[in-house]
Amino acid sequence: MVRELGGEHHLVDHDVLLAGPAEEAVRRVPRDSGPLWYRGWMLPSARYADFAAALTARGGNLLTSAPGYAVAHELPGWYDVFEGATPASTWIPSDGPVAPGPEELAEAAARLGGHGPAIVKDYVKSRKHEWHEACYVPELADLAAVGRVVERFVELQGEFLAGGVVLRRYEEFEGTDASAEGPAGASGAAGGTVGAGANGGTGVVRADSGAPDAGGRAVEARVWWLDGRPVLVGPHPDAPRQAVEPDLTDVRALVRRLGCRFVTTDLASRADGSGWRVVEVGDGQVSDLPRGIDASGLLASLIAA
Ligand SMILES: Nc1ncnc2c1ncn2[C@@H]1O[C@H](COP(=O)(O)OP(=O)(O)O)[C@@H](O)[C@H]1O
Ligand SMILES: [Mg+2]
After folding, report:
1. Last residue in a domain, options 139, 169, 199
2. In terms of Cα–Cα distance, which of 188, 190, 194 is closest to 2?
3. Are residue 57 and residue 94 in the same domain, yes or no?
4. How many domains would you assign to the chain?
5. Same domain flag for 210 and 285
6. Who's near 119: CB < 8 A, 6+ residues apart?
7. Which of 40, 54, 103, 205 has the fewest Cβ atoms within 10 angstroms?
8. How many whole angstroms separate alpha carbon 196 and alpha carbon 202?
9. Of 171, 220, 279, 280, which is best to mutate to test ligand 1, by the most ligand atoms within 8 angstroms of its C-beta?
């Protein structure tokens, strides 16, 4: 598909990108390949930075910079721009897989108003498949229960805990039911890298390691933005056949303000009908595509970017 659209693709080794050295992971990318997009599994921001540097050393240029990746990939990176359009959130940075103590949790809960339901995740992912155990907090005022959910979340994330613990106020979205079992469905992104070549050529680098992804409770739309334009609007990968028609008026201005070239926004409609909310922002390179969606327009836009 990439080639048919006038691009090129090159493979990178995802396992080596994670473990290092990044130079080794990109050795099959030709020298002086010019502008490149990545397409593949999520990378921790620090690993993406190594990856970008290794490509630069070979004369390649990831069109999403390492700082730009971190901004879209991690909640604290995009939250300030989207504040008010996304559930109120606060976070506790951590140095590895250690749960925050009761005082830190109490302060975080207080920053969210101190009562009402909430969601636990890290800077990047939740454990939505372990909804009651490690994701959903019925009542922030019950600090012992908050502590249990957060501890279990940190334990399950283990060494994959990204950045720290995030607490978000729970909002009722269409399609959600707080009393129901956790969300169903699982999916994963494809592995690889895309690159736009210097002389109009574009490359995709394919990696082939898997990472479990997740399912969602709310009915969500995933919007793919390139240079502030919505180039693809579709269902969330967890419900690929769901029809969605989000109102993008407000989100468009926020995405432009964020200033990242290629991002996704997951949008959910509030259950009370008061409009669309941003559930999360992501880097477009690592966001999962719904099965069966026609991504040729998106690919063509990326190649032309
Ligand atoms: N603040 C919230 N209020 C209500 N539901 C939420 C909230 N945050 C997340 N969810 C639900 O949990 C799911 C997972 O959360 P999300 O932030 O998208 O994490 P992940 O990165 O694991 O997909 C969402 O798809 C949504 O259904
Ligand atoms: Mg999500």
Report:
1. 169
2. 194
3. no
4. 2
5. yes
6. 87, 126, 135, 136, 137, 167, 168, 169, 170
7. 103
8. 3
9. 279
| 3-class SS of residue 33 | coil
DSSP string covering 39-83: -SS---HHHHHHHHHHHHHTTEEESS-HHHHHHHHSHHHHHHHHB
* 69 shares a domain with 93: no
Q: What is the pLDDT along the chain (305 residues), one digit of tens a residue?
A: 888 998 999 999 999 999 999 999 999 999 999 999 999 999 999 999 999 999 999 999 999 999 999 999 999 999 999 999 999 999 999 999 999 999 999 999 999 999 999 999 999 999 999 999 999 999 999 999 999 999 999 999 999 999 999 999 999 999 855 444 444 433 333 334 445 433 333 333 333 333 233 334 688 999 999 999 999 999 898 888 888 889 999 999 999 999 999 999 999 999 999 999 999 999 999 999 998 899 999 999 999 99
Q: Copy the structure tokens of residue 109.
A: 């809960």
Amino acid at position 36, single letter? L
Distance 158 CA to ligand 1 centre (A): 20
CB crowding 255-267: b at 16 or more within 10 Å, else e: beebebbbbbbbb
Q: Calculate how far, in angstroms, residue 170's C-alpha sits from the geometric centre of ligand 2.
A: 14
> Which residue range(s) make up the domain with 100?
88-169
| Protein residues whose CB sits closer than 6 Å to any atom of ligand 1 | 87, 119, 121, 125-126, 128, 168-171, 173, 176, 214, 216-218, 220, 266, 279-280
Q: How far apart are CA 208 and CA 216, in angstroms?
A: 24
pTM: 0.88
Does the residue 178 lie in any domain? Answer: no
Atom of ligand 1 lying closest to residue 126 CA: 22
Whether 120 is covered by a domain: the verdict is yes
